[in-house]
Write a structure and sequence with these properties.
The protein is mainly α. The protein is about 70% helix and about 0% strand. The strands form 2 sheets. Strands 1-2 form a two-stranded antiparallel ribbon. A two-stranded antiparallel sheet has the order 3-4. The protein is elongated and about 140 Å long.
């Protein structure tokens, strides 16, 4: 009996020693009956206390957003500084990209007809250059031919404006006008050195313009000739997981840019024809150069045509008098109303879906950052970024859009009702299929393996 008790005690001692070596035993967790009564072991780990535990959740969230926003602002500042330092190169490249969006459809049509891509790009570039040079020659010739009459009309117009200021509703005295002219002459004399420095700076700017012009020509030629290969090369620099998404986002963004440039050219042409016709009917001098100025101003949405129209009104005021100047002002306002209520919603609204406030703020920011060029490229840059972001948010896996149209655009045929499987109609747009550079297998040429047959 004693032997049995001793063996039992010894066995229990060994079990307690083994349990002590294994550490504390975690009690079993018995699931509720509705979970099937399964038994499993759960280990509870107590997290170490941190400083964040004493902060409210809202403060922690705001802090996490704050440092990320600071990093984004710092990166944007560095990017702007880099662009400013390299503006002599960056600006021609951007201008060439906008011109490529305008002329690429023509070059693509020539290539489809069997023309060599180098010959197609050179032919399009040469034709565009001849049109631009011919237009500038015509404008300069018109200006020179009307210069003598313009000088006399300006003198008579200024005298008429002075008489209106004295005899009109303002009732200014001749002494006040003379004092104002004397102050203007004194200001010019006192700032003669500054004007000389500005002339030298202008000469340097002319040198930059000449260099930028030739850089635009070379860049535009290679955009038209090798645009697809350039985009392919850029996409292959990205990680493999991001190539398809970046390729398709760039594909849709490019179509948005092409649509925007086409719409802008059409709107600017309508503005120039409308205001130029009014100037010609009223026999305002320099009607053709002013119409060309309005056309160029039309490339800056909302405010470009308005500012150039104001120049036309001032020229009419000092050449043909206040009455015709008021008529010109009415023509400018009528054309602006046509643009704002018909052309912009119908033509531009189909190309890009941007709110007018976003357009105005982007133009203002572009002008502050890069002057006139910044105002010119601000809206197309915003449209491209808008399309890319909408696509990446809606299609994170890189799949094409169902309608093959860039996100954020409106169908050229307008929205049509869609019938769902239940037979009800929905107010959703049906968009026609768009030619895409994505192959039938779903692979994009930009992400195809090196040496693959395309």
């Amino acid at each position: 009996m004693s032997m049995v008790w001793r063996d039992t005690a010894r066995q229990r001692a060994r079990e307690r020693l083994a349990a002590a070596r294994r550490g504390p035993i975690v009690p079993p967790f018995t699931a509720a009956p509705e979970l099937g009564g399964a038994t499993t072991r759960v280990t509870l780990v107590e997290r170490a206390a941190t400083v964040d535990d004493g902060l409210p959740r809202g403060v922690r969230t705001a802090g996490a957003w704050a440092w990320r926003i600071i990093l984004l602002v710092g990166a944007a500042y560095l990017l702007i500084r880099m662009v400013s330092l390299l503006r002599v190169v960056v600006i021609p490249v951007v201008v060439a990209l906008l011109l490529a969006a305008m002329f690429e459809p023509v070059a693509a049509a020539l290539r489809k007809r069997g023309m060599n891509r180098s010959l197609a790009a050179g032919l399009v570039l040469l034709t565009a250059l001849l049109v631009v040079v011919g237009g500038l020659a015509l404008i300069v010739q018109t200006f020179i031919s009307q210069l003598d009459d313009l000088s006399a009309q300006v003198g008579d117009g200024i005298a008429e404006v002075q008489n209106w200021l004295v005899q009109g509703p303002l009732h200014l005295s001749q002494t006040q006008l003379s004092d104002g002219l004397d102050r203007l002459r004194t200001s010019i004399t006192d700032n003669q050195s500054a004007l000389t420095t500005g002339a030298l700076s202008t000469a340097a700017t002319v040198g930059e313009l000449v260099a930028g012009f030739f850089l635009v020509l070379f860049t535009l030629f290679f955009y038209l000739r090798d645009g697809g290969q350039i985009w392919t090369f850029l996409c292959r620099l990205l990680p493999s997981g991001a190539r398809i998404r970046a390729a398709r986002a760039g594909h849709y963004s490019w179509h948005t840019l092409v649509s925007y440039v086409r719409a802008t050219v059409l709107v600017a042409l309508v503005d120039a024809v409308g205001i130029g016709t009014g100037l010609g009917v009223l026999r305002v001098p320099l009607a053709l150069p002013l119409a060309a100025l309005v056309f160029l101003g039309g490339f800056i949405p909302v405010i470009g045509a308005t500012l150039t129209g104001a120049v036309a009104v001032l020229v009419a005021l000092v050449t043909v008098g206040p009455v015709k100047a008021l008529i010109v002002l009415g023509v400018v306002i009528a054309v602006q109303q046509l643009e704002g209520h018909v052309l912009q919603p119908v033509i531009m609204g189909r190309a890009v879906a941007l709110h007018p406030l976003a357009v105005i703020l982007s133009i203002a920011t572009g002008v502050l950052v890069a002057g006139i060029i910044g105002g010119l490229v601000a809206v197309p840059l915003l449209a491209v970024v808008n399309t890319a972001v909408r696509y990446l948010v809606g299609h994170p896996d890189g799949e094409p859009t169902p309608d093959r149209e860039p996100p954020g655009t409106v169908s050229a045929d307008g929205p049509e009702p869609v019938t769902d499987p239940d037979g009800d109609q929905k107010d959703e747009p049906v968009l026609p299929p768009m030619e895409t550079s994505v192959t039938a297998s779903g692979d994009h040429p930009a992400v195809a393996p090196a040496g693959a047959e395309r």
